[in-house]
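Re: the multi-chain job from yesterday

Posting the exact lines I submitted so nobody has to dig through the queue logs.
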Amino acid sequence: MIIRTTAACAVLAAIAISASFAQAQSADARRRAAVRKFTDLVSRHPMADVSQGMVAMTVRDHLVLDFVDGDNRLARMNQAAAVGYFDRPGCGLCPVLSISVPYLLDRRAGDDAIMLVLWHEYQHIVAIEEGRRPPTLHMPLRIGEPVSAALVELLVEEELQVYEAEYRLAAFLGWQPNDAYFHAYHDHGRAAMACMLIEEYVTLPLYKGHDATLAKVVERFVNEEP
Ligand SMILES: [Zn+2]
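And the result, structure tokens for all chains:
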């Protein structure tokens, strides 16, 4: 009985080991495919800021690229990419661009859409590198951590500006990404885009209880000169 159980356990353990080995191998293959896709899209990006600037930042080790797969913050927030600033030895606060491997490998995501996401994230980096925003704005926030009204204001204001930069580029290039916010911007203007984004933000746990601040930011954005 004991022998049979041990043998069965050994077989089960062997199956578990080979399954996790196969998973690790496939995770590695997925990551390699995602890196290839990313490299190809960056090299063909219509904006030199990305095709040259982003590459230059990576080469001089100022920008870290983080290809994320599996259960992680991006997946939980259904995001394609995000920029964060992290304290790195010898560098100080430096940007980390996290990119979703499932998003890069999703055949439904067109090259245009991914290139726009890269442009979007690059705008966040540039805003900080040019001193228009404090890097602490992009320090990682833990999900559920309360945020101040002042931080909400900065985050949302920057997000609206970056979305506008992204959709302005799409319109300029004649791209038609399959993105409801883009169509709101393209068909009805920046106020429609801003209102649509804010309608989504009020439902996010991060902005819970900040309806008045969100309304103030969108009103200011709509009334300012583009
Ligand atoms: Zn953004």
